[in-house]
Amino acid sequence: MDFSESYRCSLLPAYSPDGRFIAAAVEYRLVVREVESLKVVQIYSCLDKIHRIEWSANGKYVLCGLYSRGIVQVWSVEDPEWACKIDEGPAGIKHCRWSPDGLSVVLVADFCVRMTIWSLVDRKCTYLPGPKHASKGIAFSPRADQLAVLERKDCKDWLALYSTSSGWELQARLQLPTLDAADLSWSPDSSKLAVWDSALTYAVHVLGADGEALGSYSAYGDGLGVRSVGWSPGGDLLAVGSYDQVVRVLNGVTWQPLLECHHGSPVDEPAQVAVYQEVEEPRGVLAPLQLQQQQSPAAKRDTRARYLVCPLPVEVTNITPPTNKPNPTLGVGSIAWSPNSSLLATVNENMPHAVWIWDVLSASLAAVLVHIGSVRSMAWSPAGDYLAVGTGNCRVYVWTAEGASIVHIPLAGFSASQLAWAPDGSSFALMDQEAFCCAYVTS
């Protein structure tokens, strides 16, 4: 694996849909580079600090959200003289995104008082009722023909479905059986829509593209409920991560669990599971596991690390959340499906140092990666060969079906906390607090 030099950024860089360019925000500047050479292609100056960047689906434009000013600026990569500015005035902007065709910009005003759709073709402006959430609860179908929006009226949840091809015409508005809907997600084939309740109620409801109820699931009635939800790429399975530290993989026909993934300690089954424990080597000598926590951060930066395959059973540290602080981090907070739907990677925040990899086909645990630091991010390569993990240090962790490895980032002072893959899987971007670099996968 080869690494580029580091470059300044204030947000996680975004790859263009075709993988040719990568855009990075540096305070008020937008810098577009070629992915292969990281040569600067264009530099654009915005009116204020950039809070969000997003490529259009056709890869021709980059959207920059300047939330502090209530402004969105759009830049053209092909024509540097072309520019667009959208000012929402006193309404402000809480969130912005592209429409699927890359020809309209969808804005949510402050306090979610309204949703506005601006067309870049004819400058037409369409106002829709205010959504329940600014960034969550709003989703375009993968086929790009529908927009689903969660709404809250008269202390009840509603789902509004709009047609993107007929001037944002309202197709249906129906009341949901949720008490306090948290978010929604389309299936990859656009035929189904999952809506789940807030943490106070365990409830997942599945609707058809026309709003017809297809099924519901609730694992238990008492206790905190759903933490994370993810459709399999094939659209026939739905993984639901809960606050009880279990992931339930639901059948796409009966909406009942086909597989329950329990994040328990010690890890002692199945017998063929591989548990990789990160260990460090100070001064060229392998350090005992008991000494790892005694090293200072400066000393740890000078050490090398590798994975040690541990014999079963293996204890995984379980951290009890503090009871005197609000919003405790617990339960399964991250779910990531492999592109072929055969593997599922999860992070249980009660055990924040570990990544669990489940083989869905055999309904068993395939591997566990146990790290010294807490997992900050993880993502599968679009090609499906690699799972990359970042823990906020000078290393990146890679797992494949053949094994796991630790790659040291050869940049002084660089700590990778966020990562994003290129669409073709040939590279991925790693972000520090104020810089990013690209890691190129070599065969």
Account of the protein in words:
β31 (about 355-360) and β32 form a beta hairpin. The protein is globular, with a radius of gyration of 23 Å. The chain has about 450 residues and is an all-beta fold. It has one helix at about 295-300, and strands at about 1-5, 5-10, 15, 20-25, 30-35, 40-45, 50-55, 60-65, 70-75, 85, 95-100, 105-110, 115-120, 125-130, 140, 145-155, 155-165, 170-175, 180-185, 190-195, 205-210, 215, 225-230, 235-240, 245-250, 255-260, 275-280, 305-310, 330-335, 345-350, 355-360, 365-370, 375-380, 385-390, 395-400, 405-410, 420, 425-430, 435-440. The protein has one helix and 39 strands. Strands 28-27-32-31-30-29 form a six-stranded mixed sheet, with no helix packed on it. Strands 1, 2, 37, 38 and 39 form a five-stranded antiparallel sheet that branches.
Produce the secondary structure layout:
Layout: E1 2-3, E2 7-8, E3 14-15, E4 21-26, E5 29-34, E6 40-45, E7 52-55, E8 61-66, E9 71-76, E10 83-87, E11 95-98, E12 104-108, E13 114-119, E14 125-129, E15 138-140, E16 146-153, E17 156-163, E18 169-175, E19 181-186, E20 192-197, E21 204-208, E22 213-217, E23 226-231, E24 237-242, E25 246-251, E26 257-262, E27 274-281, H1 297-301, E28 304-310, E29 332-337, E30 343-348, E31 354-359, E32 364-370, E33 377-380, E34 387-390, E35 395-400, E36 403-408, E37 418-421, E38 427-431, E39 435-440
Parallel strand pairs: 27-32
Antiparallel strand pairs: 1-39, 2-39, 3-4, 4-5, 5-6, 7-8, 8-9, 9-10, 11-12, 12-13, 13-14, 15-16, 16-17, 17-18, 19-20, 20-21, 21-22, 23-24, 24-25, 25-26, 27-28, 29-30, 30-31, 31-32, 33-34, 34-35, 35-36, 37-38, 38-39
